[in-house]
Amino acid sequence: MSSEPSQNELKAKLNLETSRIHWHDLQTYFARGQVVRVAPELDLLEVATELAADNKSRFQQWMSDGKVGDIPPDLAQAWYDNNTELWAVVIAPWVLVQDRSGHVLH
Predict the structure, then answer these.
(1) What is the residue-wise DSSP string for the chain?
(2) Is the pTM of this model over 0.70?
């Protein structure tokens, strides 16, 4: 029997660790370059699970498609000006964030 958690178990664990946070509260992590933007059309938990599993090819594809990556300065400024509330989950040392304000949640 494997001691490694299954992908579903990991996703369930990460779901419990996901929360909403305001952009102002993430400034220290942003300044360190540890905040990663996840496009709203992606499943934040799926992205976090793939990061935890070190799935480099999947991440490379998302990055090439512009769906995962750094936060552009103009977006960071807009989030700061509005103190935008984001969904976040930590996969140390990274903080994955997603702005769901313009999307309907199921």
Answers:
(1) ---SPPHHHHHHHHHHH-EEEEGGGGHHHHHTT-EEEE-TTS-HHHHHHHHHTT-HHHHHHHHHTTSEEPPPHHHHHHHHHHT-EEEEEEETTEEEEE--TTS---
(2) yes
Among 90, 92, 96, which residue's Cα sits nearest to residue 38?
A: 96
For residue 103, what are its two tokens? Answer: 């999307």
Name the burial class of residue 77, with classes exposed (0-12), middle (13-18) and buried (19+) by CB atoms within 10 angstroms of its CB: exposed
Give the tens place of pLDDT for each residue, 43-60.
999 999 999 989 999 999
The residue type of 80 is Y
